[in-house]
């Protein structure tokens, strides 16, 4: 046996192969929901540095919804495919978590066994040697077997780059897109160029990783194939078994590809069942990894009024006549006269009806924050309103047994899971999220009354979560015992219809 | 800025499931900007099927353009 290729090394490569395919395909599903990339602090249509759609969007705000930009991927390409960004995000979270775990084990064993010396260069000679090797490849020749001890200089540089720079960069930029991370560590995210910088770098890393995988696998078969195959499959040096190794590898690749497809079609065959299974895994991960991060946008100096975006997308358009004549009537007055928000609890039935002036008389909270949609767009604004923990006491103490807060809207959902007639949009937050300083009912943006298309006259802001939790055109806020009793029971309109996670912290 | 939008409801036929709804929406998304539409929803309520669009109040969507988009998605019809 060859001590350079122990069983743990080969096993971690196989696991990595399975997971990287899941990661890439679920990542493409997410990208397809908003196939545009920016470097800016806003996402104005026409300012992208790269886009994968021919759709042209209006330049003005508030006349279209970001969901209209979504493209549909075939299940062979996306995981799961067919416009399922919610389920794609679950798969991405699971794959990324397992990929990270596999990577940590791999690197730990690399150092524990001393095999790191085969990969990490320890001499500056590596650069001229790698250059020589590159020239050989560019001449479409093959370096002699004596260059591989077990790797040649170019391989060592490539592997060091991928393991210790590229993979960590993907993890860092991926987590930087979490609103929980950004609202707790705003400086870290801003250093990466903000949400759009992190998203664009994440994309570039994905391209580099895909290129590496193609080259890595390709060279296995093109350069000293017999040696590589027996190393990879048997950890052996006897090239007489190369045929067996090739057969094993081909069968393995086919099996893994079928597994990837199976995941797509299993998910699509019953999306609710898939959602239930996936959240069983992803919700605890979200809770442990991101639940402890409490937003501090109201106490930070990193994002200031200088960072405010010129353009703000929206997802969902203001109510029209068939949705709420009350809201329309109030909109057409000078200062939302006649508009009310009901604050109450469904446990005892207590409630109180407040006007916009009532909200303005409560203690005011104001901060600059970045709004991010799970699709990928973002916008920075100054939000002003009242903290929910200052608002809810107007009806007294939280009733016994109430564990969640349900916020609903004058507007209807964009669609229902089963395409039944649309019902009012709603979202549910838990007690920990309610208690955060940056969970407010906002009635101003950038020092002006809130615009209609962004939720006027009052909308929910939950800075630790993505935008789908932040109900616009708020009608009521109520304590409830359990969200399973409302809607389709998944804790919000986007959870019900698009199978998003209840926990919107990443 | 208080953007004002109008909505219009059309009766449609031939839609059986969510996959077909998505196929229709993908075709509609392609004509949204030209037609001044910002959002659309297909509602399936028993035998009654409706397409609800939100659009700029100063631009009435072209019925034929919507019918053509639905036809490109499959055997779906705009009834009125």
**SSE series of chain B:** EHEEHE
Please mark out the parts of chain B with pLDDT under 50 across 5 or more consecutive residues, or reply none.
Answer: none
Distance between the termini of chain A: 45 Å
Outline of chain B: globular
What profile does the largest beta sheet of chain A have?
Answer: 5 strands, mixed
Please tally the helical runs of chain B, counting DSSP H or I stretches of 4 or more residues.
2
List SSEs of chain A in N-to-C order: HEEHHHHHHHHHHEEHEEHEEHEEEEH
Report the count of strand segments of chain A.
Answer: 12
Describe the structure.
The complex is a heterodimer of chains A (506) and B (80). Chain A is α+β, with helices and mostly antiparallel strands. Among the domains of chain A are: 123-217, no CATH class; 295-498, Sulfite Oxidase, Chain A, domain 2, CATH 3.90.420. Chain A is 43% helix and 13% strand. In chain A, the strands form three sheets. Chain A has a five-stranded mixed beta sheet with strand order 4-3-12-7-8. Chain A is elongated, with a radius of gyration of 26 Å. The mean pLDDT of chain A is 95. With 80 residues, chain B is an alpha+beta fold. Chain B has a single domain (6-78), classed as Alpha-Beta Plaits, CATH 3.30.70. Chain B has helices at residues 18-35, 63-73; strands at 6-13, 37-45, 48-55, 77-78. At the A-B interface, loops of A face strand 1, helix 1, strand 2 and strand 3 of B.
């Amino acid at each position: 046996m060859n001590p350079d290729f122990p069983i743990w090394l080969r096993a971690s490569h196989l696991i990595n192969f399975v997971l990287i395919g899941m990661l890439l395909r679920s990542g493409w599903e997410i990208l397809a929901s908003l196939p545009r990339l920016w470097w800016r602090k806003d996402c104005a249509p026409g300012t992208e540095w790269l886009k994968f759609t021919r759709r042209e969007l209006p330049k003005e705000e508030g006349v279209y919804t970001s969901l209209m930009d979504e493209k549909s991927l075939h299940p062979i390409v996306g995981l799961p495919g067919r416009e399922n960004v919610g389920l794609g995000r679950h798969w991405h979270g699971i794959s990324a978590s397992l990929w990270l775990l596999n990577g940590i084990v791999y690197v730990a064993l690399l150092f524990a066994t001393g095999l790191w010396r085969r990969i990490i260069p320890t001499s500056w000679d590596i650069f001229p040697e790698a250059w020589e090797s590159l020239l050989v490849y560019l001449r479409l020749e093959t370096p002699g077997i004596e260059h591989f001890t077990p790797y040649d200089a170019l391989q060592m540089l490539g592997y060091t780059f991928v393991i210790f720079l590229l993979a960590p960069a993907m993890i860092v930029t991926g987590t930087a897109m979490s609103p929980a991370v950004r609202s707790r560590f705003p400086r870290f995210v801003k250093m990466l160029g903000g949400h759009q910088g992190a998203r664009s770098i994440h994309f570039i890393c994905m391209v580099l990783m895909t290129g590496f995988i193609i080259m890595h696998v390709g060279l296995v078969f093109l350069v000293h194939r017999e040696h590589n195959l027996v190393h990879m499959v048997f950890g052996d040096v006897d090239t007489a078994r190369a045929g067996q190794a090739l057969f094993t590898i081909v069968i393995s690749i086919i099996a893994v590809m079928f597994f990837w497809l199976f995941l797509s079609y299993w998910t699509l065959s019953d999306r609710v069942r898939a959602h239930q299974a996936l959240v069983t895994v992803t919700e605890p991960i979200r809770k442990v990894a991101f639940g402890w991060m409490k937003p501090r946008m109201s106490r930070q100096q990193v994002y200031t009024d200088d960072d405010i975006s010129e353009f703000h997308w929206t997802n969902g358009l203001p109510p029209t006549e068939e949705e709420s004549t009350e809201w329309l009537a109030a909109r057409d007055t000078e200062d939302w006269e006649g508009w009310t928000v009901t604050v109450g609890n469904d446990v005892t039935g207590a409630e109180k009806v407040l006007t916009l002036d009532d909200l303005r008389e409560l203690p005011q909270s104001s901060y600059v924050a970045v709004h991010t949609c799970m699709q990928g767009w973002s916008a920075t604004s100054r939000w002003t309103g009242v903290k929910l923990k200052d608002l809810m006491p107007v009806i007294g103490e939280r009733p016994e047994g109430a564990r969640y807060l349900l916020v609903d809207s004058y507007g209807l959902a964009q669609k229902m899971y089963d395409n039944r007639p649309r019902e009012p949009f709603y979202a549910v937050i838990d007690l920990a999220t309610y208690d955060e300083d940056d969970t407010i009912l906002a009635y101003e943006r950038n020092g002006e009354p809130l615009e209609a298309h962004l939720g006027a006259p009052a909308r929910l802001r939950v800075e630790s979560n993505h935008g789908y939790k932040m109900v616009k055109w708020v009608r009521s806020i109520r304590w409830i015992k359990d969200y399973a009793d409302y809607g389709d029971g998944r804790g919000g309109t986007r959870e019900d219809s698009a199978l998003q996670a209840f926990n919107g912290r990443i | 800025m208080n953007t004002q939008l109008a909505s219009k409801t059309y009766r449609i036929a031939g839609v059986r499931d969510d996959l077909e709804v998505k196929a229709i929406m993908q075709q509609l998304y392609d004509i949204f900007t030209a037609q001044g539409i910002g959002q659309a929803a297909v509602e399936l309520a028993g035998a009654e099927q409706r397409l609800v669009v939100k659009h700029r109040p100063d631009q009435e969507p072209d019925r034929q353009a919507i019918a053509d988009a639905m036809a490109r998605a499959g055997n779906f019809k705009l009834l009125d």
